[in-house]
Amino acid sequence: MTIFLSLIVGLALFFAIGISARAAFRTLAPDHQKPTFRDMPLTASFGIAIILVYVLVSLLGPVIAPFGEGEVVGAQYLPWAAPHYLGTDKLGRDMLTRLVYGARNTVGIAFATTILAFVVGSVLGIWAALVGGWVDNWMSRFVDALMAIPALIFSLLLLTIFGTSVLTLILVIAAVDATRVYRLARSVAQDIVVMDYIEAARLRGENNWRLIRREILPNAMAPLVAEFGLRFCFVFLAISALSFLGLGIKPPTADWGSMVRENATLIAFGDVTPLLPAGAIALLTVAVNFVVDWQLHRASGLKE
Amino acid sequence: MADIWRMIGRRLLLGILTLFVISLVIFGATELLPGDLARELLGQSATEETLAALREQLGLNDPAPLRYLKWLMGVLQGDFGVSMATQKPIAELVGARLGNTMFLALYAAALAIPLSLVLGILAALWRNSIFDRASNALALTSISFPEFFVAYILVLWLAQTGIFPSMVRITGSTTFGDRLYMSFLPALTLTLVVTAHMMRMTRAAIINLLASPYIEMARLKGMSPLRVVLRHAVPNALAPIINVVALNLAYLITGVVIVEVVFVYPGLGQLMVDAVTNRDIAVVQAIALIFATAYVLLNLIADVMSTITNPRLMHRR
Description:
The complex is a heterodimer of chains A (304) and B (317).
Chain A: H1 2-28, H2 34-38, H3 42-64, H4 95-131, H5 133-147, H6 151-162, H7 166-193, H8 196-203, H9 208-244, H10 256-262, H11 275-300
Helix pairs in contact in A: 1-3, 3-4, 3-11, 4-5, 4-7, 4-9, 5-7, 6-7, 7-9, 8-9, 9-10, 9-11, 10-11
Chain B: H1 2-28, H2 37-42, H3 48-58, H4 64-76, H5 90-125, H6 130-144, H7 147-159, H8 176-182, H9 184-210, H10 213-220, H11 225-262, H12 268-278, H13 281-308, H14 311-314
């Protein structure tokens, strides 16, 4: 019964947020952007609104949070009541506070990792397409070999070898995901490097780095941006999964994945508190996916 | 017929080559360390004696190519070496668990594949209806959920009421029926995670075809929409559908790791996570190789099957 009740409440909230966000975007958008938002689906406006909330919370974390990140403020596993609106965790830390700080840590680390993966992957991919020949051949075969191992399994292997710390986590996930970005960037760039204007730029004497930065990258941006959203979701889920397994971000740093693991015993007693961080992960990924879906649909000009 | 066998042979050779490269990567990754494995495992404070003893135990004194050959020869004979944490042979640790993991993956596949195909075909048939939109939004949502979230929701919902157990305890005397019952929740979790993607791709593959002239012809003949989809669209959409199914079965391999940990399922994934925590590198290498082999095999089967279903690929010259 409660499941259906929460489903109905969730749907109602979804429509309320979606519709009001769409109305807000329509009135606030500058005139030349208005058509973009005019026929935007509800899912997309909902997604953008949620992403904005996450960004705000992670930027204003210490201001919003009622207590300190690692501060023990009461008994263990307190129920939901003021001043601990979401209760406390297994060490007596305020759940709400840790959720707010988790936005900073988990999302921040995932974002940094995605950017790293993108810079490395797309520069190498475009460079391979531009130079061609044996460089391209060897790099692509190497990436193929790495991609033949499932991502999570490969990250686990690398984490065993290099040990588990936040820095190795970022580097390992970025390396694994850079291979996927490399593939996409290379295939997009391959269509671009044969264009006449690249030839012209080459004859002008532009060097490879300038060609990548000024000629190819701007034209490869649209698919790469959509990929960035999807990649962020994968990276975010991978980091949470590893943290959940106890191999990612470590306590006392507040992180959503490890928060679920730490308090999982409560679930056996029918308490939903440990699910909140997991829900926070899910909500952000859903929001990003909705926005990416809309962008892809718009870019493809697909009308079924 | 001879063509099929020749193609399968070629793909098999390619698969073996891929596996060889994968084994190189899995083994070679340890060589990326700035120092050596012994120092990395024991930390900076280790004495020279303990370092030397560990190097001796790991066989680190041999040059890397020689060690690789020894390891590969062992693996080919089913000998993965000895686990550092438990001092037991890895083949023994892995043996029973491999069966459990495969059982779980197959169970999930048996639930997910029919479900997603039916849902995908229905969504294509009734596209742009409420059903289509709702299932599309639901699919996007469930793709975005972390596996452990789905798992715990199911625990909260189904295990709390006592309908299904939230932990899996498999012993030698567990009957098949009991196994099905006990591993229902982990299998259902995996099903929910992979169904969405398979369903969306099935729908997309069929809708792509519905614009082609021969489908319009079939419609103009007065065929019912269901018959058009089942008799004309689905056979031609089989190749992409098979590829997506294989991709998702491969995804099951990694999904299994997290789900096994949530449900304390005695499988390879759980063993791997423990080994990563203990930095038991030999065990991790062995399991990574097993998972990678399964991944390559699945892709190979998908490749062969999608070629067989498509006469245009079969008779290419």
